[in-house]
Amino acid sequence: MLNRINALRAAGAVCGTTIYRATGPLSWNSVLLRAASGHSSDMANHNFFSHVGSNGSTLTTRMAAVGYGFSAAGENIAAGQPTVEAVMRSWINSPGHCQNLMNPVYQDIAVACKRNDASTYGLYWTMDLGRP
Hints:
Layout: H1 2-11, E1 13-15, E2 18-20, E3 27-28, H2 30-46, H3 59-65, E4 72-79, H4 84-92, H5 95-102, E5 108-115, E6 123-131
Helix pairs in contact: 2-3
């Protein structure tokens, strides 16, 4: 997924009506992965789909809880898409999600996908983006 995102950023994109020129690549961040993984697990295990966690957590409280100090933060979530390409297509086709992918302020990224076949959507994706 990181390669797919960085290829998009290198090419530039149109997100809704906003044109984004090519921008630099993102770096994988294992600290952000803990925040993304925790949120995907929460959604899968508690059968919900929201940026707000089952305990009321938000993106920024989850990032702070894992020790990622940030000056900028963003999050994309998705549910039900069975492949990286499918989730990328849905994010690229959504202006707000696409803008997160293309925002040049972000430097770090992590993406997690968790499965629970007993839940509504089965697969729950969380992408966390940040800048220290």
